[in-house]
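does this look right to u?? protoporphyrin IX containing FE version
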Amino acid sequence: MVDSTTTTRNVRDLPLVPRNPLPILRLIQAVRTLDTGQEVIRAAGGSVTRVSFGPSWLVPSLVSVMSPDAIRDVLGRNDALAERCIVHDEVRHLAGDSLFVLPNEPWRPRKRALAPVFTKVNVRKYSGHMSRAAQAFADQWRDGGDVDLDAACRTVTMRSLGRSVLGIDLNDSAAAIAEHMHVASGYTADRALRPLRAPRWLPTPARRRARAAVAAMLEVTAGILTACRADQGIDAPLVHALIGATDPETGKPLSDSDICNDLLIFMLAGHDTTATALTYALWALGHHPEVQDRVAAEAAALGDRELTAEDVAHLGYTTQVLREGLRLCPPAAGVGRLALRDIEVDGYRVKKGTLIAVGIYALHRDPQLWPDPTAFDPDRFTPERMRARERWQFLPFAGGARSCIGEHFAMLETTLALATIVRAIRLRSRDDEFPVDVPFTTVARGPITAHVEAR
Ligand code: HEM
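got this back:
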């Protein structure tokens, strides 16, 4: 671990991160394949490796970090050293300011205003919405048949998110929102990962489509805000927290457009991710009947009633299954940062201005850290084995100051949903593989078909 007192002068004495030896075309392809590309980069250059696409005055270097120590050096340190990067800049440019994209300085007060909505204690209030959304899925499939887990889980998570923090049922607009999200996020990630980018003012067809998608989603968020302003009684904690937040410099409330931008980001960050986590866990259970029966028995032991946040303490094995799913299929395959000055990463020097790509997917599948890494084995996450493990080895929600604000929400929602669904129905996955697209976050390339029947 780097000593935070390490001076810039000391860092200058360190060797630069070694350059990755892959030919440039292979590198470009690997960098743009956000999940499995990480393993290609590591196989050729190790867990801390520098990717250069040309002279640094033309194309800034990218350093890929995929080991626990190196990731801790990037994410776990003073945020004066690492900042939002080109990925966040692209999102900011397209969709305005929000918690996700704000630079560290203006981000702090916004985080303070919104954090109470998502504390471990406060998210417990939403458990009724979460369990009922999952129960609706279970009830719908009690008679059995072939279900598309991808579509069904999106419905569950969209309903949970909408009802618990936004005060509406988003499902009427779910399909449209999902489509718009993918267009907009795919565009930003695609731009961010090009070694050379067209200028932003150029009205390319892709840009026009992305702007139209954002405009359509902002219409939905504007509708939410208008409804909450008109009726203070609407139970929409996130919207009310944003209405109550103030700008630290002016003391004024956030503008309506700032609030709408934030709501949009929460819809984006809080929906696809949990849908992927739940879909993957159900798909994996559909291939491991003995694990599935254990989850079902754990949930059934709680009785045939709506599950609550208090029940989570008795759903330890269900939680292990989810964690193993998040290891194998992390919905955020990686995160990016910009080095604000020369910094030390795992004994190497990373130059100021470098884009640092933190490879969560590769970290979670590193054979040196996880024996038989591709095998689905929830026992990796028993409490004892978790305690014995280095904290920076498992990072589905990233780590450090800017880790996921929705972690407790997501874990509660997916645990209650998995237990509720598997208690009611038995699943058999039809597909051997779990195909994904990674436009930005990792999403199932549906349909993911499972045969289901009542238990
Ligand atoms: C399994 C589900 C989820 C996963 C795996 C996940 C993962 C992550 C990761 C890795 C980050 C860090 C991104 C970065 O540094 O660039 C992040 C940030 C964020 N997530 Fe999540 N997330 C999940 C669910 C949620 C939910 C349910 C919400 C909200 C309801 C949410 C809202 C956010 C927001 C707003 C940020 C930006 C936080 C900040 O910069 O302060 N996420 N998430």
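The two ends are 50 Å apart (CA to CA). idk if thats expected tbh
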